[in-house]
Structures are given as structure tokens and as C-alpha cells.
Batch of 2 targets.
Target 1
Amino acid sequence: RSKEEGGNTHHSYQHKLHANAEERRVLEFELRNALESNQFHLEYQPVVEANGDHGVVGFEALLRWNNPKFGNVSPAKFIPVAEDARLIVPIGNWVLRQACTDAMNWPSSIKVAVNVSVDQLTSPSFVETVVQALHDTGLPAWRLELEVTESIFVRDGGLAVQILDRLRKLGIKLSLDDFGTGYSSLGYLSNIRFDTIKVDRSFVTGASKGKAECIAIIRAVVAMADALDIATTAEGVENEAELAMIQQFGCDKIQGYYFGRPMVINDACALFSDIQRSSVA
Ligand code: C2E
Ligand code: MG
Ligand code: MG
Ligand code: MG
């Protein structure tokens, strides 16, 4: 259905990852009323334990945009445009509220992870917005995980740390996403305690192809995280060989196509009824 709605322009918008100036202008125009016209929805990708029976510990909420003109546009393409246009604050706040609402229908041990852009994190009332979302939905703080990237330490480093600290004191969990791809200083890890470091998919892919550098980096990250009492999640595990490799490295959690692609909310909920049925059986 969405393919037909997307029409001819659909393909040109999916193929190139980064939008050029003209594309960005057009995307920005379309993004301006995307929220009001309900063009967004969330998909959820399971995060599972690396060992044992690979039980689901949480889901990451991933934003999807279906535009009547362009069809499905990848977040890699529209998130940067939304950030530049300062639309990421209202959009990101919608994601937060929707994810908390959805998580209330899951078993109470299951967490929900929400990606937060630096401009959203450092926007004036972000902490209040989070508190309000938890209050209105009834989701306990410890079930909400906020994912930020190292880029938050590049700009307004002090402010970001302050805000993360306030969130942490509220009991919210913090994850450092795409670790290893951004700002290379590790000093900030002594200023803010993350619950989880997410090892970027590029290292998992590289390591599985035998790249010595990627293997060394994953080993070093896991050793450092262990020493700091931070959990690790390996991103982008796509097959059994990568699973075996990641288990050998000692990562705690896994997220990747091998255990589940991002899925619509109903499919995520169906996963739980399966789990509950099999654990009763
Ligand atoms: P991310 O937060 O690192 O999310 C993981 C991305 O990796 C997702 O791409 C997911 O579909 C993809 N992925 C997961 N497992 C595999 C795998 O095994 N193989 C491959 N090839 N890919 C895998 P997606 O959904 O396209 O999102 C891309 C990025 O867009 C996210 O990266 C995140 O940085 C950003 N994003 C998505 N939703 C939001 C949002 O609500 N707010 C903000 N600020 N950013 C978001
Ligand atoms: Mg993420
Ligand atoms: Mg990531
Ligand atoms: Mg990533």
C-alpha cells in the first residue's frame, strides 16, 4: 500500500542515504506538518540477552515516516533534516510519549528505549517533558531507557551532562548509542554513568569479516565497560556466526536482525503472548 502511495519519487528517496540541499528543503517542507497529519509511527526492535535462552529484555522504539508524496523515508535521512529545522523537539517528544504509552501494554519487566537527539536533550523543558510522559502514562522510570550518542558531548557538553544527571537521579536508564563512531574522548564516561554502552554495528560487521581492528575495539570496549560496571549491547547482529562471536567477546545484550527486525506494535505484542505461552507450557 505504502509503495503505491509513494509513487515514482519513492525510489529516489530511499536509495541515497544523505539528502542533498534540494532534497532537504523539500523534506523539511513535508516534515512541517507530518506530526499533525499522523504520518509518523513507531516500530520496535527487540533487545535480547546475549546468553541463555535469549530472553527479550526490551525494545528500541524506531521512528518511521510515511509521507503521501515520498512514501517511507529512512530516519537516517529525515532525522538530520528535522534536527536542522528544529522540528526534532516536537517530533522527539511525540516519540517519547508514544513509546511510554505502548510500553504500558507489555509485561512489566520489559524496557523501552527511546533515541534522543542532542537538541532535544538540551531543549529548555526536556526533563519536565519526560517526567510528564512517565506521569501521564504510568510507566515506571526504570523501564524507560534514553539513548544518546557521543555527539552530545561535543556541543554544550556541560549542559548535556547536567541534564543526563537529573534524568538518572529520576531512575531513568541511560544508554550510549553507536559507541565508537563519534567523539573519541573517553573522559566523559567519568562524569556521567551510563547503564549500557551500545557497540556500533560497524564494529560487529567488521569483526565478523575478520578485521583485527574491529575485534580489538570490541574487546577493549567490553573490558572497559565491565570495569566501569556498565552493560554492553552489540548492535546489528545478523546471523549465527556473529552471535557466536559476540558471545565470545562477552557482550551482555544483543540487538539485530538475527533476533528480530524492527516491527509494528502489534507484532511486538504478539511476541509476548508467544513468550508467555511457551513459558507456561
Ligand atoms: P540507532 O539508534 O542506532 O538504531 C539502530 C538502527 O540499526 C535502526 O535503523 C535499525 O533498524 C538498524 N538495525 C538494527 N539491527 C540491524 C541489523 O542486524 N542489520 C542492519 N543492517 N541494521 C540493523 P533505523 O530504524 O533506520 O534508524 C536509524 C537511526 O535513526 C537510529 O540509529 C537513530 O539514530 C535514528 N532514529 C530512529 N528513530 C529515532 C527517534 O525517534 N529519534 C531520534 N532522535 N533518532 C532516531
Ligand atoms: Mg538507538
Ligand atoms: Mg545504535
Ligand atoms: Mg547504530
Note: The chain has a mean pLDDT of 90.
Target 2
Amino acid sequence: MATPIKDVILKENAPVTILFDKHIEFLRDYGKDDNNFEFGMTDYLRVSGMYWGLTALELLDQTHSSPQEEIVTYIKNCQDPETGGISACLGHDPHLLHTLSGVQILAMYDRLDAIDVEAVVKYVKSLQQPDGSFTGDKWGEVDTRFSFCAVATLSLLKRLDAVDVDNAVKFVESCMNFDGGFGSRPLSESHAGLIYCCLGFLSITHRLDLVKRDVLAWWLCERQLPSGGLNGRPEKLPDVCYSWWVLSSLTILGRLHWISGEKLKKFILACQDTETGGFADRPGDVPDPYHTVFGLAALSLLGQAEIKNVNPTYCMPQHVIDSMQLSPQILRD
Ligand code: GRG
């Protein structure tokens, strides 16, 4: 007997339109109460969390409603004077992921002048290994996520020249699998999140010539389940965040039209919380800013009118990427 497909069933009364005002309220209020238990337990991801929330607000055309000066000062204070890297919150060690998130926020605000840019460049450079890979911080974990974070940060600072790009490309290429996908390290399982990181990396470095374009696009299409939602690898449940990791990858490959956008949209909209606003991983679950930004960004790639255009490589508003005169590579037919 064939194994049943793991999936969810959408309810008849699931929302079918964007709950625009509810999402704005959800994002504005999130984290306002710093005595809240959830807030206290998430300090290890604070700067990235700020990037998710602010990008979501920006896609809803609501940036003006964020406390810009307070956020700029917070990021400035998270820059470690010794290494130049940015930490998740005050008093924590710096990390490449939060360095990227901090730089993304400042780029959105056009306030990169607030930090010591050359110190950030020095930090990113210090994390490159002899095989071209990057560690996330001084503790040495290597992952293709950090290759993406490194080149995305440096390109936003216009300092991609600071690292050995050819060697970095060789490492990412060595993480490509027979199915066209990419894992976290050589011989690791293909995963949609890491595929986004590697395609984003190759888009920024203009080396998409290395990918098995249609083999990979087909693997990504196979992530769509009968509910319309996408999973990150075979035999897994759908999750709104993969709407972004898969769709941005298909967009970079010029193959967005290979999946059913209509069915995916229905799934994403069904993940909205009708009471509080925000998106959850799956219908009926608790919403959070992470799933909210990736739900909105995926809807933007699907051409949803009320949402601003998002750039598939940087997951930042397209107008910011345009005004910075960045031109990541995108394959088109
Ligand atoms: C600027 C948008 C942006 C991103 C920064 C950190 C990063 C770069 C991207 C993260 C990509 C990602 C989601 C990687 C997934 C890593 C992974 C192996 C997750 C597996 O988690 P499970 O097993 O999930 O909980 P599944 O869905 O596979 O069960």
C-alpha cells in the first residue's frame, strides 16, 4: 500500500482575502511589551526578528509607523567594538545572521552611516575559511546559510571585493546534489531553505550558470502538496515559510509559473489568524512575525496587488534594491 501524503486539509471557512489591517496591528503591537514571557525568551533572535517585522510592515507600505531612531540606535549598540559583527541583542556575541539582518534594516532606512561599515567588512572577511566556506561566528559552525549571509551583507555594503568570491563559489558548488538541490554542507540533504541560500548566493555573485536549472526547478515544484502548500523536503508537512524559500528560488530560476500560484495563494491566505492578524506555519496554529513576513513576501511574488514588490534574492523591498543600484542575477527565458 502506498504511504499517504503528509498534508493538511483547508477548512471551508478559511480566510480567502488578505486581512490587511489586522496584520498591521499584529506587527505594530508585537514586542511592545518587553515584560512579556515570549519577548524575554526570544532575545537570541531579536535583530533578525526586527528585520522580519520591519520588512513585513514595509511590504504593507507601513514603514513610517516603526520607531526608526530607536531601532537604528539599538542596532548601532549591537555592533561589537572588538570584531565589528552585530549581535542578536545587547550583550550577546556577534553572529553573521544578525549582522546581515542589521545591515538589511539599516539599508531599508537608508541609515548605513549609523554603523562602522569597515568593521563589519572586517568581521565578515574574518569568518571565511580556506575552502571558501563561512562560519556563522567565532565558534566555527559551517553552513551554506552563512555563505549567503556573507555575500548578501557585503553586497549591500558594496564591498563584495573584500572576500575570495571564487573560492566561496567553489564551496557552494560542492554542496550541490544529484537532484539539483543544495544542502548545508557537501553531501548534506537538499532542503528548500538551503536551496534559497545557495541560489541567493549564486544570484549575488552572478554564477547561476552553475545550476542544474530544470532539474532543480522540478524538485522545487514537487514541494507542492494537494492542499496547495509547500514543504521544504520530501515527506514533510507544508509550512508558510516554504512559500518563500521555494517561490523565491523558482523566481530566481525563472520558473515561477511551474507551480500552481492559485492553489498556493489559497493555502497562504488560510494560514492567517482571523482574530489577532499575522500568519502561522499552518492553518489554525499561532501566528508570528517570521511566518508573517514570508507569507506576505510569497504573496508579493505571486503578484498580490496590495503588497509592494519584494526582491527574490534579498527578501527586501524591490525599491530599496533599485535605489541601491544592486542587480542580483535572475534567469529569464
Ligand atoms: C535574508 C531571507 C533571509 C534569510 C537569511 C538564515 C537564512 C538566510 C536562511 C534560512 C534558510 C532556512 C529556512 C534553512 C532551513 C534549515 C533547515 C535544515 C531546517 C530544517 O528544519 P526542520 O527539520 O524543517 O524543522 P522541516 O520543514 O524540513 O521539517
Note: The beta strands are 310-311, 316-317.
